[in-house]
Amino acid sequence: MTHTDLVHTDTQVAIAALARRHKAAGGVGLQVLNMLGGRAENLLERLPAPVRSGLDGATERALRVALLAARQSRRAVPDQKPWLNTALTTAMGAAGGAGGLPTALAELPVTTTILLRAVQGIAAERGFDPNDPGVLSDCLTVFASAGPLEADDGANMAFLSTRVTLTGATVHGLLRSVAPRLATVLGQKLAAQTVPILGAAAGAATNYAYTSYYQEMAHVHFGLRRLALETGTSETLLVQELKRALKAV
After folding, report:
1. How many CB atoms lie within 10 A of CB 231?
2. What is the four-CA torsion angle of 32, 192, 146, 225, rounded to 10 degrees?
3. Of 102, 88, 100, nearest to 208 (Cα)?
């Protein structure tokens, strides 16, 4: 009996829909790369060496700011529609890119906060409590996915199976584990925003791509979690099925 035989047909249909979301997530990012006329790995080379070496620390600080701000803002500001999150970060990306690297760096923690709130909103949409430590941990691990400017054939899905309960003792370790992956992704964003002449347009385009990407990946992540709870199927098996479905999309 194959893995597929163990998964109900309705579940396979739901997984196929999540696979299409996953596949579409990076589509806008590829358009951004075409606009910039380069490859994702070459973008980082455009950043000054001191910025490149400090990306991990800057990203971890941005995540800490985002975590605190997201927690506080949830008490006063409701979750926004995905299009509004995208519109807001797009405008911020344009502003950040218009001023070059200094303004792009200043914009980083604010955009990261909005991205985290967007992911939390999707968790809530899927029926999870964003204030639950385990769910908040899941929200942060969504940032450990490949990123919109990287080709992802489904192999880089470790974040889908990551389970860490977020407590005072583990938050530091979780942020440190997520930050290097996200640092590479945000480094590409910063580099795009410093492209001469195109800075503002590139900032808007990359923020649009990043917000679209992480919202879609959040749907994949929490969609799988919801399927596991509703069907009693292990998440490990569902991730394997998602990888299989991605090859057929």
Report:
1. 15
2. -80
3. 88
DSSP 8-state assignment for residue 5: G
pLDDT tens track for 115-126 = 999 999 999 999
pLDDT tens digit sequence for 192-232:
888 767 778 888 888 888 888 999 999 999 999 999 899 88
Domains of the chain, by residue range, sit at: 4-248
Task: Render 93-156 in DSSP notation, one character per residue.
Answer: HHHHHHT-HHHHHHHHHHHHHHHHHHHHHHHHHTT--TTSHHHHHHHHHGGGS--TTS---S--
Provide the pLDDT for residue 148. 82
CB 79 within 8 A of CB 190: no
Q: pTM to 2 decimals?
A: 0.84
Classify 80 as helix, strand or coil. coil
Report residue 157: phi and psi, to 5°. Answer: -120, 20
CA angle 237, 239, 245 (to 5 degrees): 105
Q: Name which of 30-44, 66-80, 150-164 the model is least confident about.
A: 150-164
Q: Could you tell me if 186 and 196 are in contact, meaning their C-beta atoms sit under 8 angstroms apart?
A: no
